Amino acid sequence: MDLLLAATLNAGTVLALAALGLLLNEKVGVVNLGAEGMMLCAAIAGFATVAHTGSFSLGLLAGMAAGAVLAAALGLLVIFLHTNQYATGLALSLFGLGFSAYVGVDYVQQTIAGAPRLAIPLLEQIPFLGRALFQHHWLVYGTVALALAMTWLYQRSRLGLVLRAVGESPESAHALGYPVRSIRLACVVAGGALCGLAGAYLSTVYTPLWSEGMVSGRGWIALALTAFATWRPVRVLLGAYLFGGVTMLQLHLQATGAQIPSQLLSMLPYLATIVVLVLISRNPAWIRANMPASLGRSFSPH
Asked: Which sequence ranges are marked TM in the entry (predicted)?
């Protein structure tokens, strides 16, 4: 069970990083459907960097840069050129799928060493909990800190109040003198960097290899997580661990020889996503009360 819990935290970290990035986007009113493609491009960028340099830190930075660049392109299109946010995001996702497959052809057979883990002194020696909670990559703990920091940002800081204002009423924020489009672009780029970090973590730390389409729908699950968590960072984190646990459970059941068809077990994470979205959709008034009012809407200062 300790190994299952440890694997759940690792799997949840990928989803949490991507979902927190998408949360940054949606809090200012921008829907990003390109997370899957961004994560794929970041995954190959991170893996290739580690394969050539041996530095996991550079690999994670390369993934963040790849995600930020693609997010910047998305932001320029939807914020300044007013293209449809949903269609542009889908196009970005398809682009990332094809581009990463093309660039990554030569890396399919390559392997890299596992990333170093951060073992917390004394705590790592606690029976059961030591291996489950205190022997992970530093980014696992960094993701928890990030979720808490974002909660403070939105609830306690002036900057968070401005970001929420841009997401709720960009017209009012503009009337108060805030550069709405620039703020949106900055949040989209920052969110893309987090999605890129998630992709790079996946290919260099979580499963240190590259294979075509290895993100396997995690970008879409991360997108669903923002609604599941009603746009609250800590709930995003808990939801990511929940979905990560479902993913690890199906692998655990396969390893123990459970008499369940493997195809059904592979469906579990996506089935859980659909069930959660159906349950949430039963109360549209609750969704509207928590969703940023300008989500998906373009804004022009003129």
From this structure: 28-51, 58-80, 86-108, 138-155, 183-207, 263-281
